[in-house]
Specification:
The complex is a heterodimer.
Chain A (H helix, E strand, L loop, with lengths): L24 E2 L5 E5 L9 E2 L6 E2 L4 E4 L8 E2 L4 E10 L5 E9 L19 H10 L12 H4 L10 E6 L8 H8 L1 H14 L4 E7 L3 H11 L5 E6 L8 H9 L14 E5 H13 L5 E7 L7 E6 L4 H7 L9 E4 L6 E3 L12 E5 L17 H5 L6 H10 L2 H6 L10 H5 L6 H18 L1
Parallel strand pairs in A: 1-14, 9-10, 9-12, 10-11, 13-17
Antiparallel strand pairs in A: 2-8, 3-5, 4-7, 5-6, 7-8, 13-14, 15-16, 15-17
Chain B lengths: L22 H23 L1 H24 L10 H11 L7 H16 L12 H12 L1 H4 L12 H7 L7 H6 L11 H13 L6 H17 L6 H9 L3 H8 L10 H21 L6 H17 L10 H6 L1
Helix pairs in contact in B: 1-2, 1-3, 1-9, 2-3, 2-4, 3-4, 3-5, 4-5, 5-14, 9-12, 10-12, 10-13, 13-14
The chains are: A alpha/beta, B mainly alpha.
Organism (chain B): Lachnobacterium bovis
Keywords (chain B): Cell membrane, Electron transport, Flavoprotein, FMN, Membrane, Phosphoprotein, Translocase, Transmembrane, Transmembrane helix, Transport
Main location (chain B): membrane
Chain lengths: 439, 319
């Protein structure tokens, strides 16, 4: 059984109070929408529309580019303006379909299903695949691949990642409160695929209202239970969550399925529910807009393809011009130099900060204090890996388990000498993995 | 590129937030934690003790300042680590020491032991202890001269070694009313400071506890009086063991960073201290034990690399 927490981790200022009690509000897109063809891990999607085509809301505009890939749908009705490379939140240029909205939102008719229990497992997985569902917590791994492990009978736990351990983010929390039935419905659909599995909703104990609400609904269900997790970053890390809720451990060479687990994020599970029962593809999701530079922080439901700029405008714009904008949480999100960037399936938040605190910190020598060792949820020695990475000592880096790093950034956060510990480890890891691929 | 933006926001690799802790704050905590022992030393040995400590601190700070000037590097004194070194060195000197010798100690600690090896974080041995041992060898007579009005001159451990337990009062040793270096005598004051450091999370008990416990086990077996409570208390309270265990063996830079390594390091310190005290020519051995253990740190670390989360020991070996 679970131990409700893990060793290591940190307690940063959580900033959730700014948005946690604000209900989800929808932002209607206007003008130009940008749909990058890579909003997921795996092969980019292949466009099936061309310049000048008229499209409807919910119409497929790009087909899967392979097994590990996912289709893309238009979130508005309108005309395809062009297909060209556009900048995305990570800073990369990605080929994208540009659609000019006609502001009518004429929607495709979806094929509904009254009772998903009547569908076969293949049909369920196919509906999930055809709706373009990917891991919406941030990674963007195609969900139909995750739900097709080698041996489905060996899956014993379906874990809903309701931890939401990143500071400031409250979108999953709002979903848990406002779309509880869809979340639980989604869990039931996944449980139908795995007959030996039990569903666990892992929720951090700073979200007691959500815990109570969900617990009330699932207490009579013997296949579902709530696991109240101790609040600590990175509790929502896949390996940490699996350990906390089941007591099982996985490493970098294993998939959760190797430990009999499948982990999905709240937003993903809701998308699964909508895909299977309503035939509705992934065209909307919710994001937290927060930070001290935003006028009206909140939780916004937006259409995929909307630019960050429009979302900020919907949130009342800036109180002051921010120094830093982060897509995702402050611990693992990407900072962006521009707002002319489309929101994708994996954009879980926009944080706008008046001040960029990290640009002002002064780096000093490592004093070997070991705070990073205490904080590391993977039981590594980050300061040493940081040194090996800076010196380019690959063998040492591997010997000291550098490849096990989950890039949570806890080591950099706690470092009293303000060193870029996680950053250099990430770079080294990337280089080593690229090298391995070449061989 | 087609970006038509007037403002560019700042970009950096995550994480985008930082904790408030800083090196200077940690050093400040250590200085605060050493104050009870310092004040007791001044109360015990008089105003001369204060001057010795101040000379030692000043010499350390100036050495670091000058060194950085000469090699044209940015000044590092604001991280306060040279103040900690100076204070620790001062507390490890007898109050009777000529001031110029204290100054030489400070210069040696900073220039030779710390800066020449690359400054903070790079030195392989505790600068204060390195300097103390240097002074012990260079000015043996001055460094072991504890003749001050209040005390006969011999430290309690020397008394035990040469005369016997009957002339030692372990209660006085706990309080610190004995001969010795400025900061080492009062166990109560040291433990008070150490408790503060543990409370604010600057040090943990791993190294001090394994040090003291392994030392107790060692002298219970090999010591002059073996398992005699008064003898053991005297041995723990005397000879700078408390100061060493809580403030010098726990020095971040010169102790292992691996969790198991810290335990082994503490045991090394304890066993070596016992060895020096029971079988050496001197009654004391804390400084040399810690310095020798400092030298073992790279070997200890290389053999105590922790297994990562979810990686089994067997799997690691098979790689």
């Amino acid at each position: 059984m679970g131990v409700r927490t893990f060793k290591g981790g940190i307690h940063p200022f959580d900033g959730k109070k700014f948005t946690r009690d604000l209900p989800i509000r929808e932002v209607l897109p206007k003008g130009e929408l940008v749909f990058p063809l890579s909003q997921h891990i795996g092969a980019p999607a292949q466009p099936i529309v061309k310049k000048g085509d008229t499209v409807l809301k919910g119409q497929k505009i790009a087909e899967s580019g392979g097994f590990v890939s996912s289709p893309i749908f238009s979130s508005v009705s309108g005309v395809v303006k062009t297909i060209e490379p556009r900048r995305v939140a990570t800073g990369d240029l990605v080929n994208s379909i540009i659609i000019e909205s006609d502001d009518n939102f004429t929607e495709v008719e979806y094929e509904k299903v009254e009772d998903f229990n009547k569908l076969s497992n293949e049909e369920i997985i196919n509906r999930i695949k055809e709706a373009g569902v990917v891991g919406m917590g941030g990674a963007g791994f195609p969900t139909h691949v995750k739900l097709s492990p080698k041996d489905p009978d060996k899956i014993e736990y379906i874990i809903a990642n309701c931890a939401e351990c990143e500071p400031y983010l409250t979108s999953d929390y709002r979903r848990m409160l406002e779309n509880t039935d869809e979340l639980i419905g989604g869990m039931k659909i996944i449980l139908k695929l795995f007959k030996n599995a039990k569903g666990i909703l892992g929720i951090e104990d700073n979200k007691l209202e959500a815990i109570e609400k969900i617990h009330d609904i699932v207490k009579k269900d013997d296949r579902l239970e709530v696991c109240q997790l101790i609040t600590k970053y990175p509790q929502g890390g896949e390996r940490q969550l699996i350990f906390a809720s089941t007591g099982r451990k996985i490493n970098s060479k294993m998939l959760p399925a190797d430990a009999g687990c499948i982990v999905d994020n709240v937003e993903t599970i809701i998308a699964i529910y909508r895909a299977v029962t309503k035939g509705c593809p992934v065209i909307k999701r919710i994001a937290t807009v927060s930070g001290n530079a935003v006028k009206n922080p909140g939780n916004y439901l937006y259409s995929i393809g909307t630019s960050y700029k429009q979302i900020i405008e919907a949130a009342g714009g800036f109180v002051v011009e921010p120094e830093k904008i982060v897509s995702g949480g402050p611990m693992m999100g990407f900072s962006m130099f521009s707002l002319d960037i489309p929101m994708t399936k994996t954009s879980s938040s926009i944080l706008c900060f008046k001040e960029d605190v990290v640009s002002k910190v002064e780096t000093r020598a490592c004093i070997n204090c070991g705070r990073c060792v205490e904080a590391c949820p993977e039981q590594l020695i980050p300061s040493r890996l940081h040194k090996f990475a800076d010196q380019g000592r690959e063998e040492k880096f591997i010997k000291w388990n550098g490849l096990e790093c989950i890039e949570c950034g806890s080591c950099t956060y706690v470092c009293p000498s303000r060193r870029q510990v996680a950053q250099s480890i990430k770079t080294m890891k990337k280089n080593l993995i690229a090298k391995k691929r070449k061989k | 590129m087609s970006e038509k933006n007037d403002v560019l926001y700042q970009v950096s690799s995550s994480p985008h937030i930082r904790a408030n802790d800083s090196t200077a704050r940690i050093m400040l905590y250590v200085i605060l934690a050493l104050l009870p022992a310092t004040f007791f030393g001044i109360y015990n040995f008089g105003i001369r003790a204060l001057i010795v400590v101040l000379v030692s601190i000043l010499s350390c700070v100036l050495s670091e300042l000058c060194f950085n000037k000469i090699v044209k590097k940015e000044s590092t004194i604001s991280d306060l680590s040279c103040v900690v070194t100076g204070l620790l060195l001062g507390l490890n000197l007898p109050a009777t020491l000529p001031f110029w010798e204290a100054a030489v100690g400070g210069i040696f600690a900073i220039i030779i032991v710390k800066m020449l090896f690359g400054g903070l974080g790079q030195n392989f041995m505790n600068p204060a202890l390195g300097a103390r041992c240097f002074l012990l060898i260079s000015f043996a007579a001055d460094m072991t001269n504890f003749n001050i009005d209040a005390y006969s001159g011999a430290t309690p451990l020397a008394v035990i070694k040469n005369e016997g337990m009957s002339n030692v009062n372990s209660l006085k040793m706990l309080l610190g009313q004995t001969a010795g270096t400025i900061g080492e005598t009062s166990t109560v004051a040291i433990v008070l400071g150490a408790a503060f450091l543990i409370l604010v999370g600057v040090i943990d008990l791993t190294i001090p506890a394994s040090y003291i416990l392994s030392f107790v086990v060692f002298i219970s077996i090999f010591g002059k009086y073996q398992f005699d409570v008064n003898y053991i208390i005297a041995e723990i309270c005397g000879g700078g063991l408390m100061l060493g265990a809580f403030f010098m063996a726990t020095d971040y830079v010169t102790s292992p960073i691996t969790p198991r390594g810290r335990l082994i390091f503490g045991i090394c310190c304890g066993v070596l201290t016992g060895l020096f005290r029971c079988f050496g020519a001197n009654a004391e051995g804390v400084s040399f034990a810690i310095i020798l253990s400092n030298l073992l740190v790279p070997i200890i670390e290389d053999n105590t690399i922790p297994t990562a989360f979810g990686v089994s020991k067997e799997a690691k070996k098979n790689e």
